[in-house]
Write a structure and sequence with these properties.
The complex is a heterotetramer of chains A (about 270), B (about 280), C (about 350) and D (about 160).
Chain B: H1 4-17, E1 22-28, E2 35-40, E3 73-77, H2 79-90, E4 99-104, H3 118-121, E5 133-135, H4 150-157, H5 160-173, H6 179-183, H7 208-222, H8 231-235, H9 243-257
Parallel strand pairs in B: 1-3, 3-4, 4-5
Antiparallel strand pairs in B: 1-2
Helix pairs in contact in B: 5-7
Chain C: E1 6-8, H1 10-23, E2 25-32, E3 35-41, H2 60-63, E4 67-76, E5 79-83, E6 94-99, H3 101-114, H4 121-128, E7 130-135, E8 161-165, E9 171-175, H5 178-186, H6 202-217, H7 226-233, H8 241-245, H9 254-258, E10 265-272, E11 275-282, H10 303-322, H11 332-336, H12 343-356
Parallel strand pairs in C: 2-6, 6-7, 7-8
Antiparallel strand pairs in C: 1-9, 2-3, 4-5, 4-11, 8-9, 10-11
Chain D: H1 8-12, E1 27-32, H2 36-45, E2 54-59, H3 67-75, E3 80-85, H4 96-113, E4 121-125, H5 131-148
Parallel strand pairs in D: 1-2, 1-3, 3-4
The chains are: A alpha/beta (about 270), B alpha/beta (about 280), C alpha/beta (about 350), D alpha/beta (about 160).
Chain lengths: ~270, ~280, ~350, ~160
C-alpha cells in the first residue's frame, strides 16, 4: 500500500510526525486499527522500519506516525521524506491496548520522549470516548523542553478541564517553570496516583520503563494493571523472521502491548 | 610435535601466580582426534589443554572477543599466529602487557586427513616471533627465496574465461555466512564495511555477485597483512579455496614491492602502509 | 489403492533414478570443492543421490532460498512504481533425490512456523510442487542424533518416497504419502522390469526394512533423552554455563545458515540510481547486529546471550509455541562450525551442569 | 511473489547477452579533487570533446579510493572504472598517491586473476593543467571498454570472452 505524506510536523529537532493519507481512495476505510498497533514503513531504497501509529482511528481520514532520527532508514526519512512524497505501508500489525478492560477505570498515562507516540493514539481514542473513563492523568517527561513532542496537542490537553497533565524535564532549564526530575521521581512525588481502580499505561525508553514499573509496584499497583508497549527489532511483522522473539513470544504478533504480569513471565532479557 | 605437558605446566604456573585471567589453548574436540580452541578461566581446567600437530586454529582470533578484552590473557601461538599477533600489536588492537605468549617452534600442522597443510609446507617463519616463552628448538631458517604458490601458478597459466568460470563457481558456492571474516584474527573492525546499511553500498543479499563483492573486498582489505594462517579456509563451510585470493595478492606484492612477510618485524605495518618512489608506475596512464 | 513396496537391486535403482530425472526437474547432491550440495541435475553421472556424506546445506534453500527478491521498484519523477518479481519458477514440479531423513523432517518443522497466522504462499507453493525422495542412512554420522529427538525416524512421513538398502543388495522403494504414491504411479514404469521380488509380502518387506533400521540406530554415537533436556532447559534461563559453552564461538553465522530449521531472515534493499530490489535473505541470531535496534539498544550484546537464545529457541521456545523441537539432529552445524561447537553438547552440558548446582 | 536470486544484476539491468547496436558503456570515473578533477574541468572549459560515457565522482585524494569502490561499481552498473589522481610527487597531501599506487596495482591484478579483463580497471595521473590528456585518457578507456563489450557480472555466456 502506498501512502502519500500529507503533512510533516517537525516536533523536535530529531522527531518528525508524518501525517499520511492513502494514495488510493477508499483504502482508509479498509485500514482499521486500534491504539497500540504498529505499521511497517518502507522507504524505497533505504529499507523497512517499524513504527507505531500515533493517532487514533476515531480521527478520520489520516493517520500519524512520529519518527525519531535514530538509524539509517529514519535518518533517510528526516533527510528526504517531505510532503507529497510516497512511502509504502504494511500493516497494521500486533495487538492493541485492552480497551474493554480500561472502560470505567481511572487512567494514568506515563510517557517518556518519543514514547508518547503510542500513548497518544490511546489518549486520542479515550478523549474521543471521554464518557467511558473516569479520572484521566497524563504524566509526560522528556530530557529537555525542546525534546517534547506534540507541543500543540499537549497545550490542548492542558486546556481540557477533564484531563490532568503533568509535564517534567530531566534537567532544570531557565524557561521551565514546572516540574524537574526523572519520571519515576515525579510519579511518586507530584502525581501521587490513586491506586484503586486505576490502570497505568506506560511507554518510553527501556530504562525509563524499567524504573517506572519499579516505582509503580512500590506504590502498590498490581502487575496486571500496568500496561506497557515493548520495542524490539522487527523486520517482517508476520511472526516469521524470528527477530522479535522473547522466549516463545513473538513481540510482533503477541505484542507489542504487554501487562507487567505477562512481562514477568517472559525470560529476563530486557 | 607435542607440547601438551609443557603448556599445561605453564598455564598452571600462570594461574597459580595470578598472572592471567584467561588462557587460550586447544583441547580435544571430544569425538575424534582433532582439536578445538578452548578458553580456560581457572587452574582446575588446565588438564584439558593439549598441543600437537593437530592444533590448527589461530588463537589470536580470540583476542578480539569480549571474553578476552581488558583481561590478562595467556595464549599459545605458532609461527603464523605470532605474525598475526604482531600485526594486532602494531595496529594497537591488544596491549602487550596484558598478554603472556607461549611461542611454539612449529613443525607444521596437519589437516583432518593427516596431510601437512599446504601453508605449512611453504612456511617461512615457523618459529614464533612474539613470545614470552619459546617451546621447541628454533629452526632459524632465516629468509627463504619466495616461491609462488603452486595453485596460483596453475591458475595464472589458464586463459581468462576459464579463470572467470572457476571463480564464478567459487562465488556461487559462497553462502555468505561470514565465517571467514569472523575467524580471521586481522578482521577486527567493530562493523565491517560490507555490512554498511546504506542501501547504495549495502550488500546484504546472498547472491553470487554479492559474494563476489564481499570476498574481493575482504581479501583486498587483508592484502599485505594476511599471514597465511588459513583460518578462513578451514572455517569455510563450503570449503572454498579462499587462500587463492590472499596468495595472489601476496605474490603481486612480493613481485612488485618485495614485501612478502607481514608481521615478522614488530612495528611493521604491512605493504599498504608504506610506499617507495620506485614502485611500478607503468600500468598507469 | 496404495502402491506396494517395490524391491529391486542396484541396477534397478539406477533405472529408477533415471526415470525420475526424466520425469521432472531434479535436484540432488552434487560434489563441489569437496562437499555436497543440492543442485539441479539432469544426468545421474553428475550427482550422487546416495552419498553417505551429509550435504553442507540441507534442502532448505530449495524452499526458503538464501536470498529471495520480495519486490522491486522504479522511482521516476512521475511517481514510484512498485512491481512484484515477474518470473515464476515455483510452478515447476520438482523432485529432490537423496535427501536425508533429517532434511525431510526439517520441512515438517518449518511448516509450523510458515503456516501460523500469515501463510507464506511462496513456501507453500514450493512445498506442494516438490516430491522428496529420501534414502535412509545406513550409518550414523559422527554428529548425528536424529533418533534422540521427538520424531519417529523409522516411520517418518515427511518424505514422499523412501529408499531403503536392505540385506543382500536388495533395495526397497516405498511411497510414504499420497503425493509420493501419485508420483510413483505417474512415473514411467520402465524401471519396474527390474522387480526382483514379486512374491514377497508387504509384511516381509517391512520386516527387512526394519532390520536395516535397527542396525542403523545401533550406529549412533550421540544419544540423549530430549524430554529431559527440554524440561531441564526450560528452567535454567540464567545459568552461567552458557558463558562456558559459548566461549570459543567466533560469532559467525554458519550454524544458522546451514541449519535445516533455522528460518530467521532479514530484509534489505539494494538500489542503483532509481531502481532497486528488496531482498529477503538469511540471518542468524549469532550475529551481533541481529537484535541491535536503531537507537543503539541491543538486548543480546554478548555471545552467551545469543547462544542462549539459539539453544533455548531450538529446544524450549519452539516446543512451547508449536509443539516440536526446532532441531532435527542432523549435526550440520557442528560440521560446519569453525570450532566444532555441537548443539548436542551445548544443551546436554548446560542442562546437566545446571542441575548439579 | 518472490523468485530465487541467481543473479541480481539481471533484475536491475535487463540482460543483454550481446551488445546491442546502440550500446554505450558506463564508466565510473573516480577523480582526485586537486588534480584530475581540475583537469577535467579544464578539458571542459577549453572545449575539448570527450565521450559522455564517464560518470565522475570526486574524491579528496586518490588514496581515498578504497578497492571496494571499484568492486562495488563493477558489481552494479559500471562496465569499467577509471581512477585518476595527481602525478607522483604532486599529491596535495604529499604522499597519498604513492599509497594509492600500490593498492591499485594489487586490485588490478586481483580482478584480473578472478577473470576481469585488465582494461576494465584503468588508472591515470592527470594534473590540473592537462586538459587534453584527460580527454585522451577518457577516449582511450571508452574505446577499450567498447571493444570488450558490456560487463554482465556472473552471467556465464558473456563473461569476458
Amino acid at each position: 500500500m502506498l501512502c502519500k505524506v500529507d503533512k510533516v510536523i517537525q516536533e523536535t529537532p530529531d522527531i518528525r510526525t508524518y501525517r499520511l493519507k492513502f494514495r488510493e481512495e477508499g483504502m482508509m476505510e479498509k485500514f482499521t486499527y486500534l491504539p497500540g498497533q504498529f505499521v511497517e514503513f518502507s522507504l524505497l531504497g533505504s529499507g523497512e522500519c517499524t513504527f507505531c501509529i500515533a493517532s487514533s482511528a476515531t480521527r478520520l481520514g489520516y493517520f500519524d506516525c512520529s519518527i525519531k532520527k535514530a538509524g539509517v532508514v529514519t535518518a533517510d526519512m528526516h533527510l528526504s521524506l517531505e510532503e507529497g512524497d510516497e512511502v509504502g505501508i504494511r500493516g497494521p500489525f500486533g495487538n492493541w491496548f485492552p480497551l474493554e478492560e480500561l472502560k470505567g477505570k481511572n487512567l494514568l498515562f506515563i510517557g517518556g520522549g518519543i514514547g508518547l507516540a503510542p500513548l497518544r493514539s490511546l489518549i486520542q481514542y479515550c478523549i474521543d470516548n471521554r464518557n467511558d473513563y473516569k479520572d484521566f492523568t497524563i504524566l509526560y517527561g522528556a530530557r529537555t523542553s525542546d525534546g517534547m513532542c506534540y507541543k500543540d496537542e499537549i497545550r490542548e490537553w492542558q486546556d481540557n478541564k477533564s484531563l490532568k497533565v503533568v509535564l517534567t524535564i530531566d534537567q532544570p532549564e531557565e524557561t521551565w517553570t514546572t516540574n524537574v526530575g526523572v519520571v519515576p521521581k515525579i510519579l511518586e512525588e507530584v502525581v501521587m496516583p490513586v491506586i484503586e481502580n486505576t490502570k497505568v499505561i506506560t511507554c518510553g525508553p527501556p530504562i525509563m520503563i524499567k524504573y517506572t514499573i519499579q516505582s509503580l509496584v512500590k506504590l502498590g499497583f498490581a502487575d496486571k494493571d500496568i500496561i506497557t508497549t515493548l520495542e524490539m527489532k522487527m523486520q517482517c511483522g508476520l511472526g516469521k523472521c524470528g527477530r522479535c522473539n522473547i522466549g516463545s513470544t513473538y513481540v510482533c504478533k503477541d505484542g507489542p502491548v504487554f501487562t507487567n504480569e505477562q512481562l514477568k513471565s517472559l525470560p529476563d532479557e530486557f | 610435535m607435542n607440547y601438551t605437558k609443557q603448556i599445561q605446566e605453564i598455564a598452571a604456573k600462570l594461574f597459580a601466580e595470578g598472572k592471567i585471567d584467561v588462557f587460550v589453548g586447544y583441547r580435544m574436540n571430544g569425538f575424534d582426534d582433532n582439536q578445538v580452541p578452548v578458553l580456560i578461566t581457572g587452574p582446575q581446567e588446565v588438564s584439558r589443554l593439549v598441543f600437537t600437530d593437530k592444533s590448527v586454529f589461530n588463537l589470536v582470533n580470540y583476542l578480539k572477543t569480549d571474553h578476552t578484552r581488558r583481561k590478562r590473557v595467556g595464549l599459545v601461538v605458532k609461527g603464523c599466529d605470532s605474525r598475526s599477533l604482531n600485526l594486532m600489536l602494531t595496529e594497537s588492537q591488544v596491549k602487550r602487557e596484558n598478554l603472556y605468549v607461549v611461542g611454539i617452534c612449529c613443525e607444521g600442522v596437519v589437516d583432518d586427513a593427516g596431510r601437512k597443510m599446504q601453508n605449512c609446507t611453504e612456511c617461512m617463519v615457523p618459529d614464533a616471533v612474539v613470545s614470552d616463552e619459546l617451546l621447541g628448538t628454533p629452526s632459524n631458517i632465516g629468509l627463504q627465496p619466495y616461491a609462488v604458490n603452486p595453485d596460483i601458478a596453475v591458475l595464472a597459466e589458464k586463459p581468462l574465461p576459464e579463470r572467470a568460470a572457476y571463480f564464478e563457481e567459487v562465488f556461487e558456492n559462497c553462502i555468505r555466512c561470514n565465517a571467514c571474516r569472523h575467524s580471521c584474527p586481522l578482521c577486527y573492525c567493530a562493523k565491517c564495511c560490507i555490512d554498511q546499511e546504506t542501501a547504495t553500498l549495502y550488500n546484504g543479499a546472498n547472491t553470487t555477485s554479492g559474494a563476489f563483492h564481499a570476498l574481493m573486498t575482504w581479501s583486498l582489505h587483508l592484502a599485505g597483512r594476511c599471514v597465511d594462517c588459513r583460518n578462513c579456509e578451514k572455517a569455510c563451510p563450503s570449503h572454498l579455496p579462499l587462500h587463492l585470493l590472499h596468495k595472489q595478492n601476496e605474490s603481486v606484492i612480493y613481485e612488485n614491492f618485495q614485501e612478502h612477510l607481514a608481521g615478522v618485524i614488530p612495528g611493521d605495518r604491512g605493504a599498504f602502509y608504506k610506499y617507495s618512489m620506485q614502485d611500478p608506475d607503468d600500468f598507469i596512464m | 489403492m496404495s502402491v506396494e513396496t517395490f524391491v529391486t537391486d542396484k541396477a534397478g535403482l539406477h533405472k529408477f533414478y533415471e526415470a525420475v530425472m526424466a520425469s521432472r526437474e531434479t535436484y540432488a547432491p552434487v560434489e563441489k570443492f569437496g562437499k555436497f550440495d543440492f543442485k539441479r541435475v539432469t544426468r545421474l553421472t553428475e550427482c550422487d543421490p546416495e552419498s553417505p556424506i551429509a550435504t553442507t546445506q540441507s534442502i532448505k534453500p530449495l524452499f526458503f532460498p538464501r536470498s529471495a527478491k520480495v519486490m522491486k521498484y522504479l522511482a521516476t519523477s512521475a511517481g514510484t512504481e512498485v512491481s512484484e518479481v515477474d518470473e515464476d519458477p515455483l510452478a515447476v514440479k520438482r523432485v529432490i533425490l537423496g535427501a536425508k531423513h533429517c532434511d525431510a523432517r526439517s520441512l515438517q518443522v518449518l511448516d509450523k512456523v510458515y503456516n501460523w497466522d500469515y501463510i507464506d504462499t511462496d513456501y507453500q507453493k514450493r512445498r506442494e510442487n516438490t516430491v522428496i525422495i529420501s534414502t535412509r542412512c545406513d550409518q550414523a554420522g559422527t554428529h548425528c542424533f536424529c533418533t534422540s529427538l521427538d520424531y519417529d525416524v523409522e516411520n517418518l512421513d515427511a518424505m514422499d518416497v523412501v529408499i531403503v538398502n536392505g540385506a543382500d543388495g536388495k533395495i526397497y522403494i516405498k511411497a510414504r504419502t499420497p503425493k509420493g504414491e501419485n508420483f510413483l504411479t505417474e512415473l514411467n514404469t520402465e524401471y519396474r522390469i527390474l522387480n526382483i521380488e514379486s512374491q514377497m509380502s508387504e509384511e516381509d518387506k517391512y520386516g527387512e526394512m526394519k532390520k536395516q533400521y535397527e542396525s542403523f540406530t545401533g550406529s549412533f554415537r550421540l544419544k540423549m533423552d530430549y524430554k529431559e533436556v527440554n524440561a531441564k532447559l526450560s528452567k535454567i534461563f540464567d545459568t552461567p554455563e552458557f558463558e562456558n559453552v559459548s566461549g570459543n564461538c567466533v560469532s559467525c553465522n554458519t550454524c544458522a545458515f546451514v541449519c535445516p530449521t533455522c528460518h530467521c531472515f532479514k530484509i534489505s534493499d539494494e538500489k542503483v540510481k532509481d531502481t532497486g530490489v528488496r531482498y529477503k535473505s538469511y540471518d542468524s541470531c549469532n550475529n551481533g547486529y541481529f537484535t541491535l535496534m536503531a537507537g543503539g539498544h541491543n538486548p543480546r550484546p554478548v555471545k552467551y546471550r545469543r547462544w542462549r537464545q539459539r539453544a533455548m529457541h531450538k529446544f524450549v521456545y519452539y516446543k512451547e509455541r508449536f509443539g516440536e523441537n526446532l532441531c532435527v539432529g542432523c549435526g550440520k552445524c557442528t560440521i560446519a562450525c569453525p570450532v566444532n561447537i555441537s548443539i548436542f553438547e551445548v544443551v546436554n552440558q548446560v542442562s546437566s551442569a545446571a542441575m548439579q548446582e | 511473489m518472490e523468485t530465487e536470486v541467481k543473479d541480481q544484476l539481471v533484475s536491475i539491468e535487463k540482460p543483454q547477452l550481446i551488445a546491442p547496436p546502440n550500446w554505450e558503456p558506463v564508466i565510473m570515473g573516480i577523480l582526485c579533487n586537486w588534480c584530475s578533477y581540475a583537469g577535467s574541468d579544464l578539458t571542459g572549459t577549453s572545449r575539448i570533446q570527450y565521450p559522455p560515457n564517464i560518470r565522475i565522482i570526486r574524491v579528496p585524494c586518490s588514496s581515498r579510493v578504497d578497492p571496494w569502490f571499484l568492486i562495488k561499481s563493477l558489481q552494479t552498473t559500471a562496465d569499467g572504472v577509471l581512477v585518476s589522481g595527481c602525478h607522483p610527487g604532486d599529491c596535495h597531501y604529499i604522499s597519498g598517491n604513492y599509497y594509492a599506487r600500490r593498492r591499485f596495482l594489487v586490485t588490478k591484478k586481483l580482478l584480473n586473476f578472478v577473470g576481469f579483463h585488465e582494461d576494465r580497471i584503468q588508472f591515470s595521473w592527470v594534473s590540473a593543467a592537462e586538459g587534453p590528456k584527460f580527454a585522451k585518457v577518457v577516449n582511450k578507456v571508452t574505446e577499450d571498454i567498447k571493444k570488450l563489450g558490456p560487463l554482465h557480472l556472473y552471467k556465464k555466456e558473456n563473461f569476458e570472452k
